[in-house]
């Protein structure tokens, strides 16, 4: 079955923790019939959660289902929700999200092939794809083991999963939290996606398995040797006061301070 664009295990692995258990939930609208359960996405969401937990060997220790979530515009999309707990052998060595050091190299780690299908950008455009790309769960389990090993080595400055909003939003979070800018070219990611890929696919596409890491040049080179060229894409460098992004013909530049405002004030402004 197709899976959500984000695997929660990536969050935990990026912090170098081992997965221990999950508590899951599924949110959906009203279900008037068995057909709604089977065809409305609820059954697929539950099956997908089960597939992932079995593939990673993670027990589900609790959960719930919430139905009849509807508003003036109709029911919400069936939404799997996962809370995960992991074991961190040494909390002092947990990797942070934010970029830290001027001159650190930035790389994208993992079997990440983003798509606009099911993404936040597709939703904002009022569209809804009929399906998502398949995910090789064995491949992703191997990937997350490599992420934990790399972060536990202590040579990397930061590690952050790519989730809602794609690489562009993940990079924005890295510069906001770190208080330092970055210069990034997504040409290697576009090349991975092929000739039909657009700048939007690379910037805002979503999919499982992507982790942004930063660190000294020697640390990134060592990681590339250990993971292979297909597993690690070098994207740019930490530094400056702005996030400068290039994806083919598309360019974007925003200062760290400009990015902070919507990030920190978006929700408060919504409710004020």
Describe this structure in words.
By secondary structure, the protein is of the alpha+beta class. 37% of the residues lie in helices and 25% in strands. The chain contains ten helices and twelve strands. Strands 7-9-6-10-8-11-12 form a seven-stranded mixed beta sheet, with helices on both faces. It has a three-stranded mixed beta sheet with strand order 2-1-5. It has a two-stranded antiparallel ribbon with strand order 3-4. Strand 3 and strand 4 (74-75) form a beta hairpin. The chain is globular. It starts with 8 loop residues before the first helix and ends with a helix.
Question: Secondary-structure map with pairings?
Answer:
Layout: H1 9-14, E1 18-27, H2 34-39, H3 42-56, E2 60-66, E3 70-71, E4 74-75, E5 79-87, E6 105-109, H4 120-124, H5 137-152, E7 158-161, H6 166-178, E8 182-185, H7 187-193, H8 199-204, E9 211-215, H9 217-227, E10 232-238, E11 242-247, E12 250-255, H10 256-271
Parallel strand pairs: 1-2, 8-11
Antiparallel strand pairs: 1-5, 3-4, 6-9, 6-10, 7-9, 8-10, 11-12
Helix pairs in contact: 6-10
TL;DR of this structure?
The chain is built from ten helices and twelve strands. The protein is an alpha+beta fold and 272 residues long. The strands form three sheets. The protein has a seven-stranded mixed sheet, with helices on both faces. Strands 2-1-5 form a three-stranded mixed sheet. The protein has a two-stranded antiparallel ribbon with strand order 3-4.
Short descriptors:
single chain; three-stranded mixed beta sheet; 12 strands; seven-stranded mixed beta sheet; globular; alpha+beta
